[in-house]
Amino acid sequence: MPNRTYKLLEVVGVSEESVQQAVRNAVTRAGSTLSGLGWFEVTQIRGTIKDADVTEFQVTVKMGFRLMDSSEVKKAKRSRRSAGDTGNPDAWVDDHF
């Protein structure tokens, strides 16, 4: 297995539906601009309350994305183009992630 190096990114995902959807929103948004996302960790969960009802879920999510060499970047760009580059990280899967 090749050596890998990751950079940490921390974002806050928000959803009116659930904690799980807030995580998915955070990962999807980060994945629309970054290649090489490999893992995530939820570090905080919080929300807002209005009239004794939960109205919003917020999660702080740490994500690791792989620092790639130039050949891996070119390969990822080709994969995104061939998938139509929809901005949806689920639209393509690259086996080296």
Describe it for me?
The protein has about 100 residues and is an alpha+beta fold. The protein has one domain: Dodecin subunit-like (2-Layer Sandwich), CATH 3.30.1660. The chain has helices spanning about 20-30, 70-80, and strands at about 5-15, 35-50, 55-65. Strands 1-3-2 form a three-stranded antiparallel β-sheet. The chain is elongated, with a radius of gyration of 16 Å. It starts with 5 loop residues before the first strand and ends in a 15-residue tail after the last helix.
Quick recap:
The chain is of the alpha+beta class and 97 residues long. The protein has one domain: Flavin-binding protein dodecin (Dodecin subunit-like, 2-Layer Sandwich).
Poorly predicted runs: 88-97
H/I helix tally: 2
For the CA atoms, what is the radius of gyration? 16 Å
Query: Distance between termini?
Result: 12 Å
Task: Please give the structural blueprint.
Blueprint: E1 6-15, H1 19-31, E2 37-50, E3 53-66, H2 70-82
Antiparallel strand pairs: 1-3, 2-3
Key features?
97 residues; alpha+beta; Dodecin subunit-like; 3 strands; 27% helix; elongated; disordered C terminus
